[in-house]
Amino acid sequence: QEQLAESGGGLVQPGGSLRLSCTWSGFTSSTYAIGWFRQAPGKQREGVSCISNSDELHYRDSVKGRFTISQDKARNTVYLQMNDLRPEDTGIYFCARGPLPSILPSRRWNRWEYSSWGQGTQVTVSS
Q1: Do residues 57 and 47 make contact, with C-beta atoms less than 8 angstroms apart?
Q2: 15 to each of 48, 64, 66, 89, 102, how far by Cα in Å?
Q3: Residues 6 or more apart whose Cβ sits within 8 Å of residue 61
Q4: Which residues of 53-75 are buried (b: 16+ CB within 10 A; e: fewer)?
Q5: CA-CA distances (angstroms) from residue 105 to 22, 35, 74, 80?
Q6: How far apart are CA 127 and CA 114, in angstroms?
Q7: For 12-40, how does the pLDDT look when each residue is reduced to its tens digit (9 = 90+)?
Q8: DSSP characters over the chain
Q9: Mean pLDDT per 10-residue run, the chain (127 residues)?
Q10: What are 11's strand-pairing partners?
């Protein structure tokens, strides 16, 4: 059974940091794209960052320089280090896995390119 699970969310003050983890199991393909998406109340889900099995990585403009995506293949885990958090970063953060072509420019921020999703973890940035 293919599964993904996020962890590491929480409440943090503006300027603070959090590290999210996404661990997967049950997938047989060695090629993939893993995306981090977030959804704020009343807003559409948006892609934040993504990484491929070959360590190609991308960021949404609004998080460049603040967020860092990485992976530990031995642990089947992708991390999202989030620094200098802002109130507008608040939302539920989801990780999702899709086939390698999901990393392509025209696809990487499209949620429908990713077929498997975790349950999400809440990130709240507030003073």
Answers
A1: no
A2: 18, 15, 10, 11, 31
A3: none
A4: eeeebbbbeebeeebebebeeee
A5: 22, 13, 27, 20
A6: 34
A7: 999 999 999 999 999 989 999 999 999 99
A8: --EEEEE--EEE-TT--EEEEEEEES---S--EEEEEEE-TTS--EEEEEEETT--EEE-GGGTTTEEEEEEGGGTEEEEEE-S--GGG-EEEEEEEE-GGGGSTTTTT-GGG--EE---EEEEE--
A9: 96 98 94 97 96 96 97 96 98 96 90 96 97
A10: 124
Residue whose token pair is 């958090």: 85
Place of tokens 């990487």: 108
